[in-house]
Amino acid sequence: MNPSRLIHWQREILQLTQFLESKKDNNIKTLPLSYREIAIALLKQDNALYQFLHDKPIWLELSKVLQDSLNHLYIHYKTQSVNDIFMEELNDFVSGAITESVAYKQANNKNHTQGIDKILIHRFFGIPIFLFFMWLLFQLTFTLGSIPMDYIEAAFNGLSESIKDNFSNELITSLFADGIIGGVGAVILFLPNIIILFFGIALLETTGYMSRVAFLLDGFFHKFGLHGKSFIPLVTGFGCSVPAFMATRTLKNQKDRLLTLFIINFMSCGARLPIYVLFIGAFFPQEQAGNWLFGIYILGAILGLIAAKILRLTAFRGVDEPFVMEMPKYRMPNWKLVWFMIYNKAKMYLKKAGTFILAASVLIWFASTFPLQEETKAQYEKQIQATQEETAQETLNFKLEKTLIENSYLGQAGKFIEPLFSPLGFDWRLSVSLVSGLAAKEVAISTMGILYSLGSEVDENDENLMGILKAMIPFNVAVAYILFVMIYNPCLAATIVFGREAGGLKYIVYLFLFTSVMAYIVAFIGGEIARLF
Fold first, then answer.
1. What does the angle CA 92 – CA 94 – CA 99 come to, to the nearest 5 degrees?
2. In 3D, which of 447, 442, 60, 449 has the Cα closest to residue 270?
3. What pLDDT score does 458 carry?
4. Phi, psi of 130, rounded to the nearest 5 degrees
5. What is the largest CA-CA distance in the chain?
6. Comparing C-alpha atoms, which of 397, 373, 372 is closest to residue 383?
7. How far is Cα 35 from Cα 37, in angstroms, rounded to an integer?
8. What separation in angstroms does the CA of 302 have from each of 226, 340, 421, 487?
9. By the 8 A CB rule, do 514 and 489 touch?
10. Up-side HSE of residue 240: CA atoms within 13 Å toward CB?
11. What's the burial of 253, exposed, middle or buried (CB within 10 Å: 0-12/13-18/19+)?
């Protein structure tokens, strides 16, 4: 209730009422209204009353008093609409009446959502808390995921040895043991890590926390040219780029949407996780693995923000769209929904491993095995039979495998593109794995699983892929490879969805050029810095 308005309003009514009473006009006395009701009707500019009094002698004096009262109201309410003035007066009266007559009991139940929000979306502590949750998620992804990995790896190694022992045909044995088992097994090995990552993301989403992080990061994102609503597609990109690209439909502004589409690729999808786990396990201490995994994801996000600022200042200039988002209440996780999300992601991952990656593994095995090079084999076998030393025989066997794979179709293709990646220190195997990773990032793992297992020189205690990579790849090259994988073009399926959401083939070309150039530059700089250590 606004007392000053009501006092002012009542004063004008009182002045008019007193004026009418003082005149005691006979014409006014004939009206079936009290002097106060006539005063209110005059202030409301009642047309019938105006017409009745207009020709009466009292009107000359009354009109001056009435106009003075109206002018006072116009000035006080800052409007000349009598309807608006009366509506405001009515609202003030109703609010005052409610305040005076209604007593609210304080609710016994505290608002838990507001209490939690005071902590989780705190101005200063909100972002560090979010980063802690992400760090904890990546720690669990690596530490818990490494437990079943050993059993899965042992199972596939046993299956591979069983095939080698029970098949007499060398070509068929190689196809199953080195091609299918070596390629697909290298991908399925990282299924536990994928499940743990998606479990954590599903928990954060179903509790209502992710929406608050979008609100929390809105101001921070705007400094880099991104919209607060961009957070949802970006964090979805940690799982899979395909739904992340589709999630940009919530952004109404076309430039905000295009900018978010380009930056999603910097958020490392689940398909990149196996590559990170493989290289971190090979080149970093086990007790620090979770920290390095967290650092890789955060570094990708930071590079994405820098890229967003560059693109906002150059290609996507424009006015920012206002940030509006409904905050859901905190709730307990819907375990059925969490299970459904994990089950679908694991199913998609295994389906990809059993179909697309299987076909790619067979293709890579074929390209790395043919042509058969019988003459080369015969020459090396003569040399092996001629020597009696076991060490010399192992050396000759390694040279044979290396020669066969380097002269294969895949080796020839790798040698062709190797000069392009040589400034980064990548050999032809790593170069080929990057190209195959354009189809699906997991294929890069299966490619290395086939190529390095076929032609590698490791001792008997390092027969797994991690040991092979550590023996054959320098540390600075491994760092450059991780950085390149972190940034360069998404998989084929995601690229197609990107083109559909962005608006055409030209944007696919822009994405490929932008991410490839950024990946090359960052990988080169990162490799040179790592060389110093």
1. 95
2. 442
3. 44
4. -60, -45
5. 142
6. 397
7. 6
8. 13, 31, 25, 12
9. no
10. 20
11. middle
Query: Which 8-state DSSP code applies to residue 175?
Result: I
Q: Of 269, 287, 349, which Cα lies nearest the Cα of 142? A: 287
Rg (CA), the chain: 37
Please, how many CA atoms are within 13 Å of residue 484, restricted to the half-sphere of its CB? 27
Residue matched to tokens 């005059």:
42
Going by C-alpha positions, the residue among 132, 521, 72, 63 that lies closest to residue 310 is 521
- Per-residue pLDDT, averaged over 2-14, amounts to 63
CA–CA gap between residue 216 and residue 232 (Å, rounded)? 12
Location of structure tokens 């439909």: 249
Give me 75's structure tokens.
Answer: 């000035």
What token pair was written down for 395? 């050396």
DSSP-derived letter for residue 329 is P
Angle between helices 191-206 and 209-222 (to 10 degrees): 90
Token output for 9: 């309003």
Cα gap 450→127, rounded to integer Å:
42
- Find, among 328, 308, 326, the residue nearest to 317 by Cα: 308
Of 521, 441, 469, give the one whose Cα is nearest residue 187.
441
Give the pLDDT confidence score for residue 457 in this predicted structure.
44
- What's the CA gap between 33 and 42, in Å, rounded? 12
Taking 50 as the threshold, does the pLDDT of residue 460 lie above it?
A: no
* Rounded average pLDDT over 198-216: 82
Give the number of C-alpha atoms closer than 13 A to the C-alpha of residue 124, restricted to the C-beta side.
0
Query: End-to-end distance of the chain based on CA atoms, in angstroms?
Result: 71
Query: Residues with Cβ < 8 Å from 162, sequence gap 6 or more?
Result: none
Q: Determine contact, residues 352/494, Cβ cutoff 8 Å.
A: no
For residue 67 the two structure tokens come to 């106009």
Closest by CA to 71, choosing from 84, 80, 60, 83, is 80
Whole-prediction pTM value? 0.65
Could you tell me which residues come within 8 angstroms of residue 345 by beta carbon, excluding any fewer than 6 positions away?
A: 194, 195, 198, 239, 240, 270
Tokens at residue 129, please? Answer: 């808390």
Residues 124-166: tens digit of each pLDDT: 888 889 888 888 888 888 788 878 877 887 888 888 888 888 8
Residue 3 pLDDT class (50, 70, 90 cuts): very low
297 touches 487 (CB < 8 A): no
User: DSSP string of 355-402?
Assistant: THHHHHHHHHHHHHH-S--HHHHHHHHHHHHH---HHHHHHHHHHHHH
